[in-house]
Design brief:
39% of the residues lie in helices and 11% in strands. It is of the alpha+beta class. Helix 3 packs parallel to helix 9 (201-209) and helix 3 packs across helix 11 (223-239). It has helices spanning 2-44, 72-75, 84-94, 106-119, 129-136, 145-161, 164-172, 184-192, 201-209, 214-217, 223-239, 245-253, 271-283, 289-294, 305-318, 368-377, 418-424, 427-437, 439-448, 470-481, 516-526, 590-593, 595-607, 681-685, and strands at residues 56-58, 64-67, 298-301, 326-333, 338-343, 385-388, 414-417, 492-496, 502-505, 554-559, 563-569, 574-580, 623-628, 644-649. It has four domains: 1-44; 55-68 and 268-613, 3-Layer(aba) Sandwich (Beta-lactamase); 70-253, Penicillin binding protein transpeptidase fold; 620-689, no CATH class.
Length: 689
């Protein structure tokens, strides 16, 4: 037994010796590796502390329309020109051991790891100011090991070659404070309207809390959150012996005046459009805020400067200065969805809220073309008739009775055609169609047209009572204008990084989502709002702007108590215009009810000035055009006082002739052999001429 014990002891010693030797070798290798990294960092020398570059925005003709206006060069402040309270607050909350460590706070790292293990998630960060500064000097902010290793190596190089003062100065000039403010100088001016050197303790402690989450701790986002964060910072400053407890209490109680605007030169070219482009870069291309503002990107947009100027001119021309009504406008190229002009409000400086892309408003009767497209799919034709009369709808499933009304309570009190119902915007015809098709049909059709807003399954949906966005409606009508091809609203065609490498390029879609024949029939019906031949118990809804237009257009107006719309298009351009009050106040003045139509008509004319006059292209197959009597939708004879050339899906055109106006009662409609002779081209462009 003693021999066995002795042998076991020797074996244990042998293993222990091996472990020690291997450990020593490992430690030596680690030391050599560490020394090698330090030597390599020293050989490379001081890293260039790159100054962020402005991102540039270009119009569709390559002209510069804007640039990020919070670049480092413009806002750089020397450490001596930054309030000592800002410096103290930042160090206290971000890296209290900043002056003691050499880039990495190992005690803090260990504490963060322990906290994360206890919580089974990442709950605490351990990055030092130097590490954060190193991260800010990289354009890539992806969470990969490669990026983290680069960041660590960069941290070593910065600490080896720059003083703490230089590192702190660089950090304070590159950190993001929200609302486009990069660097403490820009943030001081934006939030408090003063230079960084003039900030007091209360302002400094609030400002230092914003970088943790600008969307949460900015006083403009939430004053409550900002004050809570300020209290934490003041407490840390007391703990770290930067201030006395009484100073912290006084600072926490001090009222603050928040300015919330940059005093740099304001953007003048399409500010709402440029905001939408930045949102697209963030939400669609998934670029972070710093890269968008300071990444040196070249962003090529779809904006047409001439059409943008025309849009802004028409808004200013038609909306009275004293009116509080707002306007949203989107103009798109229907072939590809490129947004050519955008107005999000009357004055960007007073209200940057973009009503063209953010506001959700009731579309009124502008939803009807989508309903009637669904009707065409179910066998309806422009000559389909229903009675227009005062109607109350009763339901067996417990729904309350529904009694829609026409404008001014006027009704045909007889049969009218679908084409005429659309032209005069008859609400009874629309609700009957909606209920006949089934209330789910319009909801599904709206999705097909690209509308993402939630829609209520109710009878009034046919009259546009569920909210939509202006840009979505412009896009939906683009499908009619381009013959049924899917498009999506596009603001950006190409993005290059600071090295000129293309990181995004738009690819055009070719998917068909509508039947071309039915889309064309809808387009031809939508020309009817400008055609007096379709006047009935009321004038066509586009009658007030007929004298303002000089080329073929299709379109639809719409109105609710609080919203006024006009959406229309030529083969080259689709434009949606909304007018209304932000708070949903009823539109009562007659002049204000005309804003949307007048802006639309005159914008289209100005935007297309100098471009060729184009008729809507008739599909090579699938449609057939015949003359009909617009009152009853039947084939017109030469004796009919009004004859309108109307297109139908092939095979659905009427076969019955109108007999109401025959002068020779012994004749039959079939004797009129020349009734549907070839139509002159100008009649097809403007059949009411």
């Amino acid at each position: 037994m003693e021999i066995m014990t002795d042998q076991g002891f020797r074996k244990t010693v042998k293993y222990l010796r091996a472990v020690i030797i291997i450990s020593l070798i490992g430690m030596i290798c680690m030391l050599i590796l560490f020394l090698g990294i330090l030597a390599y960092a020293k050989i490379l020398g001081a890293p260039p502390l790159a100054v962020p570059q402005s991102t540039l925005f270009f119009a569709d003709d390559g002209a510069l329309i804007g640039e990020s206006n919070s670049g480092q060069k413009r806002y750089w402040a020397r450490l001596k020109d930054i309030s000592p309270d800002v410096v103290a607050a930042t160090i206290s909350i971000e890296d209290k051991n900043f002056y003691e460590h050499h880039g990495f706070d190992y005690k803090r790292i260990a504490g963060a790891v322990l906290a994360d293990i206890q919580a089974f998630s990442k709950v605490q960060g351990a990055s030092t100011i130097t590490q954060q500064y190193a991260r800010n000097l990289f354009l890539e902010h992806d969470k990969t090991w490669t990026r983290k290793l680069h960041e660590a190596f960069y941290t070593i190089r910065i600490e080896m070659n720059y003083s703490k003062k230089e590192i702190l100065e660089g950090y304070l000039n590159t950190i993001y404070y929200g609302n486009g403010a990069y660097g403490v100088q820009a943030a001081s001016q934006y939030y408090f309207g003063k230079d960084a050197k003039d900030l007091n303790l209360a302002e400094a402690s609030m400002l230092a809390g914003i970088p943790k989450g600008p969307g949460i701790y900015s006083p403009l986002a939430s004053m409550d959150n900002a004050k809570k964060r300020q209290a934490i910072i003041l407490k840390s400053m007391v703990t770290n012996h930067y201030i006395k407890k009484k100073e912290a209490i006084d600072a926490a109680m001090q009222p603050l005046t928040i300015v919330g605007s940059h005093n740099t030169q304001k953007v003048k070219v399409a500010p709402y459009f440029q905001d939408a482009v930045r949102n697209a870069l963030k939400n669609q291309l998934h670029l972070d805020d710093r890269t968008i503002a300071l990444g040196g990107l070249k962003v090529y947009t779809t904006l047409n400067r001439k059409q943008q100027e025309a849009a802004e001119n028409q808004v200013h021309k038609y909306v009275a200065n004293l009116s509080e009504i707002q306007v949203g406008l989107v103009a798109m190229d229907p072939k590809n969805g490129y947004v050519k002009a955008m107005v999000g409000g009357r004055d960007y400086e007073k209200s940057p809220f973009n009503r063209a892309v953010q506001a959700i408003r009731q579309p009124g009767s502008t939803i009807k073309p989508l309903l009637y497209y669904a009707a065409l799919e179910q066998g309806f034709t422009p000559s389909s008739t229903m009675r227009s009369e005062f109607t109350s709808f009763h339901f067996d499933d417990g729904q309350p009775d529904y009694t829609p009304h026409n404008f001014n309570n006027k009704y045909a009190d007889g049969e009218i055609t679908l084409a005429q119902a659309l032209a005069v915007s008859d609400n009874i015809f629309a609700v009957k169609t909606h209920l006949f098709l089934g209330e789910e049909t319009l909801i599904e059709t709206a999705k097909k047209f690209g509308l993402s807003s939630k829609m209520a399954r109710v009878p009034s949906l046919a009259l546009g009572t569920s909210g939509v966005r202006v840009i979505e409606m412009a896009n939906a009508y683009s499908l009619f204008a381009n013959g049924g091809k899917k498009v999506t609203p596009t603001l950006i065609t190409r993005v290059e990084d600071y090295n000129g490498k293309v990181i995004f390029e738009k690819e055009n879609e070719t998917k068909k989502v509508l039947d071309p024949a039915k889309a064309f029939v809808m387009t031809q019906m939508l020309t009817g709002i400008f055609d007096p031949k379709l006047n009935g118990y009321a004038k066509v809804t586009g009658s007030t702007v007929i004298n303002d237009i000089s080329r073929p257009y299709a379109g639809k107006s719409g109105s609710t108590e609080t919203d006024s719309w006009m959406i229309g298009y030529s083969p080259q351009l689709v434009t949606a215009v909304w007018a209304g009050y932000d708070m949903g106040k009823p539109i009562e003045l007659v002049a204000e009810k005309t804003y949307a139509k007048n802006i639309w008509a005159n914008f289209m004319e100005e935007a297309l000035k100098g471009k060729p006059v184009k008729a809507f292209k008739v599909p090579k197959e699938g449609v057939k055009g015949v003359y009909v009597n617009p009152e009853n939708g039947k084939l017109a004879t030469k004796d009919c006082p009004v004859r309108r050339f109307t297109y139908f899906v092939a095979g659905t055109e009427p076969t019955e002739y109108c007999t109401e106006h025959l002068k020779n009662h012994g004749a039959t409609p079939g004797d009129h052999k020349n009734m549907n002779k070839k139509v002159p081209w100008y009649k097809k462009i403007m059949p009411w001429s």
